[in-house]
Predict the structure.
Amino acid sequence: LSHTNSFGSVEYTIGTEGSDYTAKFDNNGSYTSSVDKSAQANGYFINADYSIGDFMFNTGARHDTNNLHDDVNTYRLGVGYRINNNMTAIAGHNTGFRAPTLYEMYGADNFGYTGNPNLEEERSVTNEVGLVSQVKTDYVMMDSKFVVFSTKIDNMIEYGNSTYSNGTGTSSMEGWELQNKQKFDDTAINFSITSVHAQNSDNIELTRRPQYSAVIGVEHDVSDKLMLWYDWNYYGKHRDIHPTTYATVDRQEQHYTDIGVQYNLTEDTQLNATINNVTDLTYERPMGYKQPGREFSFSVKYLF
């Protein structure tokens, strides 16, 4: 739930979200593994925007609770400067976290692996600078964003000695991201490309973080109410952990497609239907964890 309003020249959004999640499976065969645990998490957040002259300021704070972990507070600060009518320079500083998975904390297998219930959250600090461009003519409308970022991660969750533990050093991730959306009449083409160089405190490449990932999509407005879309998702070459030998291995790229339809029933009600992984591609991410095949979903969004 979220609510947006304004206080003078400040626009703000307050909200909350909650989730109950469970990991329960028993994999049998030459390789057996299992976990059976549930958790409950809540988040509370506030964001605010303020503009004065050619400057724009943004800030936000969030408080997360989880019945398996300590409470976590995160925040973000951002500033933008309008260079001209089409381009804005931006800079940001934010903190974040990643909670350990239920398998990392409570899983087990027949090769001696036992989860670590005392795992702490990974904590991150990110700084970024970039440019945002908006161009609109009689023939085309284009929105672009290019950002260079640097992230430092403490308490990195690492595998060793048949369990997971929090690392003592600081891992780093540096890279860039390019987003672009161009709209011609009733058709829009959009893409997002990310390049990341990630390494731990010993300068060893981090697993499960591809150097390149991308999403390329097409949207077409059939009418003022009906829109069709198509996405191609690319997950590049990366290192991973073998599920039985626990050796670090190199893995090839993965790519799949999604399609969907959006229909505006009224000004306040929107219907969505999606087919994910259209070709029913079989892939594992991370290695040893088979991802869903073709999936169908339907949702209703009501604004009030």
About this structure: The radius of gyration is 22 Å. Helices lie at 102-106. The mean pLDDT is 94. DSSP finds one helix and 20 strands in the chain.
